[in-house]
Amino acid sequence: MGRWEPGASSRLREAALALYLERGFEQTMVADIAERAGVTARTFFRYFADKREVFFDASAELEEKSLAALEAAPATAPPLDAVAAALVAAAEVIGGNRELARVRQAVIMANASLRERELIKLTSMSVAVADGLRRRGVGNAEASLAAETGVAVFRVAFERWVNAAEDRALGDVIRETLAQLRTLTAAS
Amino acid sequence: MGRWEPGASSRLREAALALYLERGFEQTMVADIAERAGVTARTFFRYFADKREVFFDASAELEEKSLAALEAAPATAPPLDAVAAALVAAAEVIGGNRELARVRQAVIMANASLRERELIKLTSMSVAVADGLRRRGVGNAEASLAAETGVAVFRVAFERWVNAAEDRALGDVIRETLAQLRTLTAAS
Asked: Measuring CA to CA, which residue among B62, B15, B58 is closest to residue B40?
């Protein structure tokens, strides 16, 4: 895929985000995105199923790397430590470019259908992590709870990281947020 | 509202759920629901904005009672204890009829647009609880984390309760799930 159009997918992604910010997501057509990226609409559809997919095409990689990290965690690791390893692996996929993440987040928050898709994506992540924990021998109820809690930590950490004035890595913010959760639950 | 149609709103709700189960949500029209409940479509729209609202019309009451419980928690209560009080108050609104909750859940899970609306509702609940915690003087970051964690506990507890073979109250399942979260976070 794409050998005939070097860099087309990242040019398309940048063009799409720029147009979504300038004109709004609803007002941007695939043809406009392709034009700005200097390719045809047909090339756009080689990389993305539709204009929403520009935001979510990393999901498969995200899930894959998270689950690999979950599996690689020591067999003796408590469930929440295994989940933490999965979250940090997810952070490595999406945490490389905070400016891009910030623009993406701004566009998603401004559009109800994108917000919904984001929530669905997080829910399916939670289901996948819970399944991964069950494969590690964690009990059914405990697996769901650890996965849901992990996603909650991830959401909070991601929002902090995206809006942060300083330059910590997303993985570090996740670890810090998890430590705060431990303090919160111990306090009460 | 509704003095001229005693019991119309609960008859409409029951008729709607029965039809959604029989025919599917998409295939059920407002006119069908009204007919089965023995009222006019106009009466339906006195109570519900559309056929999705049949599932979500308790949301306002849920949020109101949760926030009241949050405010009523002792000033010295740790954040997660205040959140627990809010969740148990929410359980009192929706935990009265498990059979109804089970049917509602089955229909929601079978329909993507209803699942999305449910997720949006839970997110807005989390935002409201976080705001409530800030009004109690809890720090910004800690408030979001406690609220997101609370919603995670609620989701897991609700699913357990809806599918449970035994007859515990939803509030008790919430308390138990929160205790399990403490064990999980302490373990690692």
From this structure: B15
Residues A26 and A88 in one domain: no
Which residues on chain B place their C-beta less than 8 Å from a C-beta of chain A?
A: 77-81, 84, 115-116, 119-120, 123, 141-142, 144-146, 148-149, 151-153, 155-156, 159-160, 177, 180-182, 184-188
pLDDT tens digit string along B14-64? Answer: 899 999 989 999 999 999 999 999 999 999 999 999 999 888 888 888 999
Angle CA B185–A94–A61, to nearest 5: 90
Kindly give the interhelix angle for B112-135 and B79-94, rounded to the nearest 10 degrees: 140
Domain residue limits at A32: 8-54
pLDDT tens digit sequence for A98-113: 888 888 898 998 888 8
Task: Tell me: do B39 and B115 sit in the same domain.
Answer: no
Contact, B141 vs A109, CB < 8 A? no
pLDDT tens sequence across A127-148: 999 999 999 999 998 999 999 9
ipTM: 0.79
3-state class of B83 per DSSP? helix
